[in-house]
Design goal:
Largest interface: A-B, 51 and 42 residues
CATH topology of the largest domain in chain A: Rossmann fold
Largest sheet of chain B: 2 strands, antiparallel
Strand order of the largest sheet of chain B: 1-2
Oligomer: heterodimer
Strand content of chain A: 25-35%
CATH architecture of the largest domain in chain A: 3-Layer(aba) Sandwich
Largest sheet of chain A: 6 strands, mixed
Radius of gyration of chain B: 24 Å
Number of strands of chain B: 2
Number of domains of chain B: 2
CATH class of the largest domain in chain A: Alpha Beta
Order of helices and strands of chain A: HEEEHEEHEHHHEHEHEEHEHEEHEHH
Distance between the termini of chain A: 42 Å
Structural class of chain B: mainly alpha
Helix content of chain B: 55-70%
Amino acid sequence: MLSLENTIREERTGVVVSVNNLTKVFNGKIKAVDSISFNVKQGEIFGFLGPNGAGKSTTINMLTTLYHSTSGTAKIFGYDNLKDPTKIRRIVGVVPQEYTADEDMTGSENITFCADLYGIPKKTSKPRALELLNLVGLDDVEKRKVSTYSGGMRRRLELACGLINRPKLLFLDEPTLGLDVQTRTAIWEYIKKLKEEYQMTLFLTTHYLEEADELCDRIAIIDHGRIVKIGSPADLKASIGGDIIELGVKETNVDLSDLISEVKLVKEVKKANSHYRIKAELGEEVAPAIIDLLRSKGYHVTRISLTKPTLDEAYLEYTGRSLRQEQSDQEQMWTRRQTMGTARMRH
Amino acid sequence: MPDSDKTLNLQKSDDLDENPLHGLWALTNRDLKKWYKTPMLLFLSLIQPVIWLGLFGKAMNFGSFFSGESFNIPGLDIPKQIINSISEQLMQNTFGTTDYFSFLSIGMLSFVILFTSMFSGMSIVWDRRFGFLNKVLSTPVARGSIVVGKVLSSVLRSLAQSSVVLIIAIILGIQVSNFTVIGLAGTFIALFLLSFGLSSLFVMLALRSSDWQSQMAIMNLLNLPLLFGSNALFPAKLMPDWLQYVVRVNPISYGTDVGRQLLLGAEGSNSLAFDFLFLAGFALLFSVVGIILSWRLLSK
């Protein structure tokens, strides 16, 4: 499997995926991914956040060796995506965006089929298939044809198939696309479990802000094939300038702006009629400090509110548009796709 | 989650089977399952050749042209026995057997091979369209195995279907002069090679396609010309010269030629050795080209 040299390098640097100026041009003209560079560290959940057509799936397809990259390099555990595709395929797992299981086979048949494709011996794959079905809670329906599964069940089956080769790195392309809230939460739990209990490194794409916020240690915001910003969810939110504190004071005739500005971490204070609008980092710590200061000087705080910036605002800041409008479009498309899948069964 | 999950050691690496042929049978069997688990499909796919056997083989009874009473040409009275023997001679010279039904039945074996093999490309189009192919491509299974798996499943299907057609032909009264194990084995080896080549050809045409309409169009474009431009329905020596060239490069003619020689004891248009050589070359050429193309074309 991994050569000793690679293992040592990986442990020393802690970098599992290293991407440099990776570019994909389709048919010589459509630039789907435009010279992106990033690293994924050992044991983290790294997320690609971006709208439809931003190049998220194309990137995953290059990293999982389905597409040939046009230029730039991608190294996974030190293996080059163009030179050593088979070695990469052996050690990574992929959970694709589409439902790729064969509808005419049962859940357990699908998993053992995947195991055969990886060359896992039958005596190993049989018990492992059971373990995985148990992990994703499909053990009671393993003998049923996949065509009878619900969307959530099929998504969980995809997850189980992606884990059959015990990957060190798992790629998840839009893991909760088109799922209801309950199923989405369940999938999130599985993903966290993989990271925390099995120290797996995960790379996921999503256009759900909540998902990126909830799961990812670091996020790359991708738009028009380019990475516009990389950082932890907290960093991204902080980078728009911090939390907003709104403060009302009984003594409206004096301007307290200068006094408030003395508080540590306060970045900006504006007085508007009877209240103050304060921009600060770590608002939850700054707000009590402001109250204490004002009280000690004998002023009366009448009301206070704290607004945390959301990832949506950060996203808006970097891409110039909001993601929320785009979600509904993609969900509609997904519904159509599922209908098509049902039609195929009857063909 | 139950505690048993703790036993799932996802960190430990596997001893994977690195044999380049791993997964080949899994891929082949997956396609076969869709077929043998749907008896209706098997039944339906047999109707067409059976109708052809019945309609053409039995209705076009060329042997009965002369089976009437004796001819009475003025000044010449030809007895029935002579006419019968002329008729037999004519049939023998034209078809290599005294019975058109037997002639056609062997042609039908190749016909079934052609029509079943053609669909090998269709399933790769569906697999691509629904993402299944992408899943397979993301595993370390050899790209060539994906192609060969499709080809093998199609070959096994066509051989099974042509066996059923042969059994039906026997029931309907094919006159097999030479019913030996060697004859049967030789015929089926020829059909195997024919199917291997044809399946590879149609898989190859579908490698890059995710569009089943154009795949259907290709199939419709090729099926009847391949059938009529062969000796499956009619002997090549009665065809115009230009068509005989087509028959000579058409692999279906060679598959049929082997069957007629080995099962009917008919005089072949080529030596058996040449027939087998041609079919083996055809199968080898297209499967090798198909595998080479699969390395280049399956990934974008």
